[in-house]
């Protein structure tokens, strides 16, 4: 044990001895350490107020120091076998060198394998390393550095490769490759889900300002739609060629003008309509209960609530605006529809970018829960890459099929609130030509 660990341990033992002495040999006025006032007599206020907080601080500080010293010592022992001859772990390319000889240093090849550039990979590895290193399969410890664990997980997500191929490329067992993929998805979806959490009130001001600059429409807080991903029922080892075995999972997505995902909820049955999914989501309940999108912006004509833009699959609501049906040529309604269509591009690009991850580009042969985890992990990585200005997985070009998702409204009816018509009509006069 090094001197730092020994000193911390000694300090902790001394503090524990001190508390024992105080309990067995109290001062003339007994110190009250319980919440039951009948158990001990009350101490002098000045004694308790001056001494006990000092003792509590001393105990807390030493315990923390001891824990950190042992944590540091344990981490150094665990990673010792991965350090270079000089004991340094900071040499250029050291992280990438642990991925294996098959990983090309060619930037385009690296992007193909991992859907990110090398600098983003190293940043992500540094971010996730403590969580990737801290857990191993039961009774089967992995002798794999965090870089390899991350590489295996990203390779599965980026390419959609099956586990025999991953096993062969990284020189690990199929069981270990499955563990690394599952661990990466769990870490991202559990510890970093805030990357796709709905923005705060202050953050929404920035989102709406960007939309207004682009379109002239004030107080817009996002574009909403549903994407569907195919899943092939069965486990990862099964080979199911029957098309009847393929189903779809729907994910409800909200994005901003830069295609950053503001909210995503996956796991709905793909045969449900977008409107049905919306009404069964927590997002709908939160908005209807005024927990979010509860601010207004006043204009000369009407108060404009915070709202989302949606396709014709959705009903017209005060906080959900869809295109006009059959607007007259040259009218403000037609102009609103043109702007509405322009805003929808950011959502189409976000969905297309998610499909750029190989695991989501074809039917996923896995169980439902794992498929949902893949969608969540790719969504979080999508936002991380945008933040890093790394567009390795970003889709900037759309094919003709993508535009089919921007259908005109068809759900307007007598039940539509009058307020929704007023809000949309007011915004139509402010849309940029």
How far from one another are the termini? 72 Å
Please state the structural category.
Answer: alpha/beta
Strand content: 5-15%
- Count helical runs: 14
The biggest sheet amounts to:
6 strands, mixed
Low-confidence stretches: 26-92, 237-241
Helix content percent band: 40-55%
What is the approximate shape? Answer: elongated
State mean pLDDT (0 to 100 scale).
79
Question: What can you tell me about this protein's structure?
Answer:
The N and C termini lie far apart (72 Å). The chain is built from 14 helices and eight strands. 48% of the residues lie in helices and 11% in strands. Residues 26-92 and 237-241 have low confidence and may be disordered. The strands form two sheets. Strands 1, 2, 3, 6, 7 and 8 form a six-stranded mixed beta sheet that branches. Strands 4-5 form a two-stranded antiparallel sheet. The protein is elongated. Strand 4 and strand 5 (303-305) form a beta hairpin. It is of the alpha/beta class and 433 residues long. The chain has helices at 3-24, 45-79, 94-97, 107-114, 118-133, 146-159, 163-170, 174-191, 201-215, 274-279, 282-288, 332-355, 368-387, 418-428, and strands at residues 220-232, 246-255, 261-269, 296-298, 303-305, 307-310, 320-321, 364-365.
